[in-house]
Design goal:
alpha+beta; 6 helices; about 20% helix
């Protein structure tokens, strides 16, 4: 018998644990330590490193919210030991501040990120329109769809499915998890935190950075009938960039529109736009990842 969908209490407990892990432990003014959220993947989830690195950088800045980050994944993270985040205070300016973060394990660098912070100011404003999408209340939760196929999954995929999720994900353009038909490289997905969050905007930004890595590479896999749940593949994030445009809350639904303009040389390039329910464009994302099919 398939296990049931985790209860609201279990999902809220997972969210509290995630917020706690993102909050980090200070080692000194410019060094922080972060534990792990195990989502069932063999190594540390890239979104966790993104969120923690952003949190480390922001803890050294006052009065200027983050407006962009650019990160590179260099090595797989080891879930058995904490990650140490070292912050370099590159520049402190009246309008803009720059930080560089290096994430280390076993005396090796596993991730580097630059983050820029900008004091709010007035200026010209425009944005593209929010795409049409069905309301999230009428869509099936992705976790529910995965649990329905659990007995057909290999052990590595079951480990991912069995975790209580801190993030609710409801795709408007779902594909079959095991045998997807080739489809255009375009997707719309609603997501939000599985419970109420503190008012601190940094918590919402770090959680969005964490969640933005979920399934983003999946849109590059659609034209090729590939899925994260299939064996014999190497699907790895290589780099990740984000721009934060407007205030938002991640305990309310956001629409994540993604597309993949190109895949070549074993790499897939993906873009994302994040909209609040009132139509505001709150953030943009770009990522390139490794797409490899293992040959027999």
């Amino acid at each position: 018998m398939n296990p049931s969908l985790p209860s609201l209490a279990e999902r809220q407990a997972a969210l509290r644990e995630l917020v706690d892990r993102l909050s980090l432990t200070p080692l000194d003014d410019d060094r922080f330590e972060g534990g792990h959220i195990d989502i069932g993947s063999p190594s540390v989830f890239g979104g966790q490193v993104l969120g923690q690195a952003l949190m480390a950088a922001a803890r050294t800045v006052s009065g200027q919210p983050v407006h962009s980050l650019h990160g590179y994944f260099l090595r797989a993270g080891d879930k058995a030991v904490p990650i140490v985040y070292e912050v370099d205070r590159v520049r402190d300016g009246a309008g803009f501040t720059m930080r560089r973060v290096v994430a280390r394990q076993h005396d090796r660098t596993i991730f580097v990120m630059s983050a820029s912070f900008h004091r709010p100011e007035d200026g010209p404003e425009h944005q593209r329109e929010m795409p049409q999408a069905p309301d999230p209340e009428g869509l099936r939760d992705e976790h529910e769809a995965r649990l329905a196929l659990r007995e057909q999954l290999l052990p590595f995929a079951r480990a991912v499915v069995d975790q209580a999720r801190a993030i609710e994900i409801r795709p408007a353009d779902p594909v079959h998890l095991l045998t997807p038909e080739p489809a255009p490289p375009y997707s719309r997905t609603w997501f939000r935190a599985a419970g109420a969050l503190p008012d601190d905007p940094l918590i919402h930004q770090a959680l969005l950075a964490y969640a933005s890595d979920f399934s983003l590479l999946g849109v590059a896999m659609r034209p090729h009938g590939m899925s994260f749940m299939q064996p014999g593949q190497q699907i790895v994030s290589l780099d990740h960039a984000m721009w934060f445009h407007r205030d938002f809350r991640f305990d309310d639904w956001l629409l994540y529109e993604t597309d993949s303009p190109s895949a070549s040389q074993g790499r897939g390039f993906c873009r994302g736009s994040l909209f609040a329910r009132d139509g505001r464009l709150v953030a943009s994302v770009a990522q390139e990842g490794l797409l490899r099919r293992q040959r027999r």
